[in-house]
Design a protein that fits this description.
The structure is a homodimer.
Chain A: E1 3-8, H1 16-31, E2 35-40, H2 46-57, H3 63-87, E3 92-95, H4 97-100, E4 102-104, E5 113-116, H5 119-126, E6 130-134, E7 137-139, E8 145-147, H6 152-163, E9 168-173, E10 194-196, H7 197-208, H8 213-222, E11 226-230, E12 238-241, E13 253-257, E14 260-269, H9 274-283, E15 289-294, E16 301-309, H10 310-320, E17 331-335, E18 338-344, H11 354-364, E19 371-375, E20 378-384, H12 388-399
Parallel strand pairs in A: 1-2, 1-9, 2-6, 3-6, 9-11, 10-12
Antiparallel strand pairs in A: 4-5, 7-8, 11-12, 13-18, 14-16, 14-17, 15-16, 18-20, 19-20
Chain lengths: 406, 406
């Protein structure tokens, strides 16, 4: 007998049929003799609908009241899922965030979990109940409802798994697992059977959008074994853990991120502290800078270019414009017509030829590289947006054998 | 400065415009220097929609899970109302049942309030916040969410008013107050400026459907002054309290109840204990019996007739049928084609001619009386359903002067 935490996202519980499907997955796990704790998101578009309702009344509602409003979404879905499980004749009990012991910071809307006091969950499991927990929510020290922000239900599930030392935390989604590239676009994309936390973090950051980053970080910190799998198709998914046994692949995935913009500052004085001043200004606005490229200084000036997410490009440009004494009169350019292509794989750090192989694949596809960034398990390049899909295809073919079955 | 509790029903907060209207009533009360605690029901059809969703998944969901589901309705409406009040620039804080200190029995779906520990409400009032409380819900000793059953938000409002010794508890509805008869049907129906708790209880029981009975009982018990008024039209409503000053009217209201069925048992043995056995059997199923009529015994047998609500007629008939040894072979009849017409008024107990005047009005309208029941402040008659509206009209004309202005 194992303790399994299962998390189902909003699309997995969007309507009656899907609720019944999810209930049957849960029932199967329970009937196999496991203790089962389920974490559920709000149904389909519920959260967006509630936000729209609030905005109609007040374009800037307080975060406290929005949390009261939005947490009702998970409340309804967890009750409906429990009702569906009851129909199958199984013992079940739904718990809201405050009942399940989710203690969070009081940063409404973006709260962080401080602790999960899982006593009530344990009591219900001891009664042989399946426990369905409303994800995304908790309470803060003022006894107010808080929500965890986007992707919060993944984090709820991992937090329970960590607090209760669960044997596995299954994240059910609408994809079958983590692939070497987007399977809808890249022929030959392969589902990975295993991946490390670090690789998963890089893939998530790079736009693979399978798992929320905070939840992977938490899983890594507490050693929670994650499994990403489909709620629609009953096939094994991808296991995320500390060390994986698959050795035959150098690269775990090829990703494309088009939510990126390149900002270039031309002709800044080539004196110490310039980069610090620019990037501290940007960091102060909570804007993440990704790739940074600085030209070699010439004639007492140099150029600095960097990428930010496209949403932040406008704000970053304003920061670097007239408001910034240091850059007054300098040319600041913004290019949103770019894409970032990356390869991720823990194996690559011991294979010096990896970067060269990637650049060769791009050269063969006649694609120009604008910027390059590397880390121990990742190589990213910035290219023209129009070349993005061809680039992924070419790089994927170079690294992932077409006949690979994992 | 007074402490005012204001309760708004589901139709009063059904959409954005109505929420804004309600917010303006609250703002007016607050700006006049009062402490304001608002109790709100779920918006419009929310509760019915949620019930339908649950029934699609499970025709007999547990009451516990239904309470988790349905309480989300009030959670959403109280957050939306708070968000609307924020928009007006006023300080506000929403509280759910468990935050507001509603401790109830654990009879899910039909819980009773045991206590309101209003500490949190007081803290928020001390901070000068308008407090918006989700009606209809509380928590039981197991820390589970409970709901109070139909009309529960009225009871929530009265319970807060009682616990906090509020100066007034205003129940906003879609009618302007309590009338001597249904104003949509009876020309000359007059709005009452005041009415006693007991009169209100009789009127509510008899189908006036303005206030939930439990809330009136609680208001009477704790001496909470109620006011029934319209959220749409800003005019004084009807005050409900212990003693009223209006003396000029004998009868406070004329009501019609068509949700009634008459059951007759013919030819039962005329021996002691028969009535006891019949009605204890029915009471055991929680069926309320209203008017009871027993014929004078003849030839060792007698007839017993009584009324129940139409919803319970089928169950009552089954109880009295073959399952009941005592009545085997007896004729049991059920007539659902009846209506109960009643007059209510605390003054009538000291006016012996009241019943006669009512019967005269019915006689003049050529309406046959099937059964009669009287109490200290009420006289009810059972008649053919087809005569109901004419009966109310005739009786109302007999008791309520056409030129009466209260």
């Amino acid at each position: 007998m194992a303790l399994i935490v299962q998390k189902f996202g909003g699309s997995s519980v969007a309507d009656a049929d899907r609720l019944r499907n999810v209930a049957s997955i849960i029932a199967e796990t329970y009937r196999a003799g496991n203790d089962v704790v389920v974490v559920v998101s709000a149904q389909g578009d519920t959260t967006d609908d509630l936000i729209a309702k609030a905005k109609e009344l007040n374009e800037s509602p307080s975060r406290r009241e929005m949390d009261v409003l939005l947490s009702a979404g998970e409340q309804m879905s967890c009750a409906l899922l429990a009702i569906t499980i009851e129909k199958m004749g199984l013992p079940v009990c739904s718990l809201l965030g405050w009942q399940a012991g989710f203690q969070t910071t009081s940063a409404y809307g973006i709260a962080r979990i401080k602790n999960v006091k899982a006593d009530r969950i344990r009591i219900e499991l001891d009664k042989k109940n399946i426990v369905v927990v409303a994800g995304f929510q908790g309470i803060c020290k003022y006894d107010d409802i808080t929500t965890l922000g986007r992707g919060g239900s993944d984090t709820s599930a991992v937090a329970i798994a960590a607090a209760m030392h669960a044997d596995r935390c299954q994240i059910y989604t609408d994809v079958e697992g983590v692939y070497t590239a987007d399977p809808r676009k890249i022929k030959g994309a392969v589902k990975l059977s295993e991946i490390t936390y670090d690789e998963m973090l890089e893939l998530a950051t790079l736009g693979a959008q399978v798992l929320n980053n905070r939840s992977v970080e938490m899983a890594k910190k507490y050693g929670v074994v994650l499994e990403v799998l489909s709620s629609m198709k009953r096939v094994p998914g991808t296991i995320v853990k500390e060390v994986v046994s698959v050795e035959k692949m150098l690269v775990r995935g090829v990703t494309k991120d088009v939510n990126v913009a390149r900002i270039s500052v031309l002709g800044v004085p080539d004196v110490p502290g310039i980069a610090f001043k620019i990037f501290s200004k940007i960091a102060a606005k909570n804007i993440n800078v990704d790739i940074i490229l600085q030209s070699v200084g010439r004639d007492g000036t140099k150029d600095i270019a960097f990428t930010v997410s496209r949403d932040h490009a406008q704000t970053a440009m304003e920061l670097l414009g007239d408001s910034f004494e240091l850059l007054r009169g300098k040319t600041v350019l913004c290019d949103t017509d770019v894409a970032k292509i990356s390869i991720v794989g823990a194996g690559m750090e011991t294979h010096p030829g990896t970067a060269a192989k990637m650049f060769e694949a791009l050269y063969e596809a006649d694609i120009n590289i604008q910027m390059i960034a590397t880390s121990e398990i990742k190589i990213s390049v910035l290219i023209d947006a129009k070349d993005a899909d061809r680039a992924v295809d070419s790089v994927h073919r170079a690294f992932v054998p077409e006949d690979l079955v994992l």
